[in-house]
Design goal:
Blueprint: H1 2-45, H2 49-60, H3 66-71, E1 86-95, E2 101-108, H4 112-125, H5 140-149, H6 158-168, H7 184-193
Antiparallel strand pairs: 1-2
Length: about 200
């Protein structure tokens, strides 16, 4: 009996380890693909590259969510009354009069670049996020907590998820590339060398 329990435990640990490794491979590929875009948007808009990448990874499950795959929306941004672009309807957290989940209107984009750009413009153009741009661009923790306080997400642990992601994948390194002139080969080398580490958040 003990040997059977041991086998089950070993198998469980193995598959758990394998799953975590697979998740990290997917996450790292996502970072390598979109980090330059995030840095360019940081230089254009002032939104930290670490925050943008972390939000995109959390909101889109590193590009694998239905919303990301079907509408190129990597930040979970809903339509709002003033949105004039394409839309995609998907059940999220909006409830109807009977308290049942109803389809929410999300913004849809022609490509992922447009999603990253609109995320910057969405934050820059809204008065409720204005205070974020008074923060130091390298202060990712204050940005993470500020986004939650400003109402970006309803998830109570949203800030901690962003911070964990930033620290595990060392996304804060990208916030140092604010200058319009930087060594692109060195930057790309940095991207390929980043190895996931343990977050300081429990």
């Amino acid at each position: 009996m003990k040997s059977w329990v041991s086998i089950v435990l070993i198998c469980t640990l193995f598959y758990s380890f394998r799953y975590k490794m697979d998740e990290r491979v997917v996450a790292q590929a996502y970072i390598e693909r979109y980090s330059v875009l995030a840095v360019n948007e940081m230089r254009r808009s002032g939104v930290p590259a670490s925050i943008k990448l972390a939000q995109a990874m959390v909101e889109s499950n590193a590009g694998r969510s239905v919303l990301a795959l079907e509408s190129n929306n990597h930040f979970g941004i809903k339509c709002k009354s003033y949105w004039k672009g394409q839309s995609y309807y998907h059940k999220d957290d909006d409830l109807d009069a009977k308290g049942k989940l109803m389809e929410s209107c999300f913004r849809a984009y022609a490509d992922i670049d447009a999603s990253f750009k609109d995320h910057s413009d969405f934050l820059r153009s809204s008065a409720k996020y204005a205070s974020l741009f008074n923060l130091d661009i390298t202060d990712y923790k204050s940005w993470a907590y500020g986004l939650k306080e400003c109402g970006y997400a309803t998830d109570r642990s949203y800030s901690l998820k962003l911070i964990r992601t930033i620290e595990e994948y060392q996304l804060y390194r990208y916030d140092t590339y604010l200058s319009s002139e930087f060594d692109l080969p060195a930057y790309q080398a940095l991207t390929s060398q980043i190895v996931p580490i343990q977050s300081t958040i429990d």
